[in-house]
Specification:
By secondary structure, this protein is of the alpha/beta class. It has 7 helices and 9 strands. It binds S-adenosyl-L-homocysteine (SAH).
Length: 232
Amino acid sequence: MPAVRFGIHFDEERAELVRQLRARGITDESVLKAIGDVPRHVFVPEIWLSRAYDDCALPIACGQTISQPYTVAFMTQLLTVVPGHKVLEIGTGSGYQAAVLAEMGARVFTIEWHPELLEQARRTLDLLGYNVASKAGDGSVGWSEFAPYDRIIVTAGAPEVPPSLVRQLADGGVLVAPVGTQQVQAMVRLHKRGASVTATRYEGFKFVPLVGKEGWGGRTEHDMGEKEGDSG
Ligand code: SAH
């Protein structure tokens, strides 16, 4: 795999990042191995190259971000992916999260709102040899053509878990999404078992907003205020 960029491999930096993630409590070896194998520096804009393995989010095109490695690791660990799983990702961004899932043996389907970002992500994924199905569009309504999915991961902050995504989740499936206001979100993990869905929440995340019909596109700040009041 051509993990070299501008003649630099970054092997040491990547190994150090994995050590940091371990120290911060990431325990799933398959997640740590994937992060140890995927060259994050190929997914970040050239001006951020020297910070590619810092544990922080970095700007990409269209005012979006490549998520912080700890957040990617935390969400992927919550997703409990095994090889062969069909996984839908909403918010391709740089393509890094999709690559981590593909590296773990998942069959990845990913949707990005900005065509320009999707094009760049596709180029990067192709260059690295990751076979990922992708399209530009509104991922808040999912990708019904290939449903159901064993796992669904939303990498942008939503006002609530989009109902279309819950419908497209397989029985026994797991969905992970940051849900909250546009300022702060909780990571929500849903487990679907027949007609029942159980939820676990982890507080304190900050994502760019999920736009579109079942994201903030279908909402106003006023609705958001009412919702907060209701949940008390
Ligand atoms: N997973 C990405 C992180 C991207 S940030 C990575 O590994 O780099 C979130 C992305 O979600 C942004 O690129 C944004 O454009 C996208 N997004 C926001 N709302 C969306 C929607 N309704 N459908 C698809 N993508 C969306």
